[in-house]
């Protein structure tokens, strides 16, 4: 029986037995003692939306070309990828190592699938994830970044990917990219019905065009686990909150640059599952991002004008509990029976941690200390 007692931490000491938090009154003999140095324990956060196959993390700096439309960004990415010399597994793995060292518990990774790429990106991210399966849980979304209906053969590749490393079927702006709402959704929901895989659909389209797509996705969602990512059209529109809650359609937001950000308070109050993610990290789309989900909770709080302790804590809950629920992971409330997946940060309160975005002093997974002060204790294979 493996037993570790984390002492001198807030809000209370944590006893871990065989990877789970246990009643401290039942401490086994030969329990290892770890001094937390007065740090605050927080549930480890989850990155529910990231694109690791695109990243240049840990490799040569990429200078980006100007782009003002989604299509220009997509075309620029294709050109940039052609010049990348490091493999997908190397680049994604480097980003995984950094994210884990900053406390991330799990990823939902959107990975490009297209006739131009085949399933090479899925294979590369899965290779990196398998090498780190003791450090990070990774779900892979087969993502039609270049288009679904407009790239014949993509749907077949996405279905095949489910047997070769992918877990979730992705979609992308049925109207804005493919120009066919019902045709695009027919393919996605058909795949979900045949395979039982969840759906995660990028939706950048704004205004009434975006809202119409949300309504149709929600209408079709009965019996299928569906997430809409970004959903910029919902940043100001509240009339669909109840529909999303009733249809169990989840949302992810990334608090990006100038893009609209989903409001935490109204959506969670309506019962909508909301999670957060990094989106692109140091890739052809953006020079920014670092895979640090404590920092992402800070950005979410800043962009939604969180001011009270409760509002700041709610943004961290989106990153920790919302992400865990979206990926089907057990919730961590630091109570007996919970998985011992947590971080110890130098902060007096959760609100202070969200504002200060500190590097964790310790990252704990299954009761084992896997990172200290932003560095992995065990280097992952490359």
From TrEMBL:
<dbReference type="InterPro" id="IPR013108">
    <property type="entry name" value="Amidohydro_3"/>
</dbReference>
<dbReference type="InterPro" id="IPR052349">
    <property type="entry name" value="Metallo-hydrolase_Enzymes"/>
</dbReference>
<protein>
    <submittedName>
        <fullName>Amidohydrolase</fullName>
    </submittedName>
</protein>
<feature type="domain" description="Amidohydrolase 3">
    <location>
        <begin position="33"/>
        <end position="370"/>
    </location>
</feature>
<dbReference type="InterPro" id="IPR011059">
    <property type="entry name" value="Metal-dep_hydrolase_composite"/>
</dbReference>
<dbReference type="Pfam" id="PF07969">
    <property type="entry name" value="Amidohydro_3"/>
</dbReference>
<dbReference type="InterPro" id="IPR032466">
    <property type="entry name" value="Metal_Hydrolase"/>
</dbReference>
């Amino acid at each position: 029986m493996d037993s570790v007692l984390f002492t001198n931490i807030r809000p209370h000491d944590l006893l871990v037995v065989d990877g789970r938090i246990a009643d401290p009154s039942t401490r086994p003999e030969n329990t290892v003692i770890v001094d937390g140095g007065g740090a605050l324990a927080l549930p480890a956060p989850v990155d529910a939306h990231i694109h690791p196959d695109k990243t240049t993390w840990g490799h040569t700096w990429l200078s980006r070309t100007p782009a003002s439309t989604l299509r220009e960004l997509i075309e620029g990415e294709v050109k940039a990828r052609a010049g990348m010399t490091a493999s997908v597994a190397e680049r994604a793995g480097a980003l995984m190592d950094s994210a884990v060292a900053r406390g991330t518990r799990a990823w939902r990774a959107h990975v490009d699938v297209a006739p131009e790429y085949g399933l090479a990106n899925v294979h590369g991210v899965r290779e990196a994830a398998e090498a780190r399966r003791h450090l990070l849980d990774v779900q892979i979304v087969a993502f039609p970044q270049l288009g679904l209906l407009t790239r014949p053969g993509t749907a077949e590749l996405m279905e095949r990917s489910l047997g070769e490393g992918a877990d979730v079927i992705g979609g992308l702006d049925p109207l804005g990219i493919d120009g066919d709402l019902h045709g695009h959704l027919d393919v996605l929901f058909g795949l979900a019905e045949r395979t039982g895989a969840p759906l995660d659909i990028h939706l950048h389209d704004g205004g009434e065009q975006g809202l119409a797509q949300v309504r149709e996705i929600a209408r079709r969602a009965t019996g299928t686990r569906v997430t809409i990512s970004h959903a910029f059209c919902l940043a100001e529109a509240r009339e669909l909150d109840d529909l999303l809650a009733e249809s169990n359609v989840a949302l992810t937001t990334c608090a990006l640059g100038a893009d609209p950000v989903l409001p935490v308070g109204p959506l969670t109050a309506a019962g909508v599952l909301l999670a957060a993610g990094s989106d692109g990290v140091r890739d052809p789309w953006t020079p920014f991002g670092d895979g640090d989900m404590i920092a992402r909770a800070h950005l979410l709080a800043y962009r939604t004008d969180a001011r009270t302790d409760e509002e700041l804590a709610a943004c961290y809950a989106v990153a920790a509990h919302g992400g865990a629920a979206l990926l089907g992971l057990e919730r961590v409330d630091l109570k007996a029976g919970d998985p011992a997946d947590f971080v110890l940060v130098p902060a007096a309160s959760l609100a202070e941690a969200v504002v200060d975005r500190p590097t964790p002093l310790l990252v704990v997974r299954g009761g084992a200390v896997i990172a200290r002060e932003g560095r992995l204790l065990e280097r992952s294979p490359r």
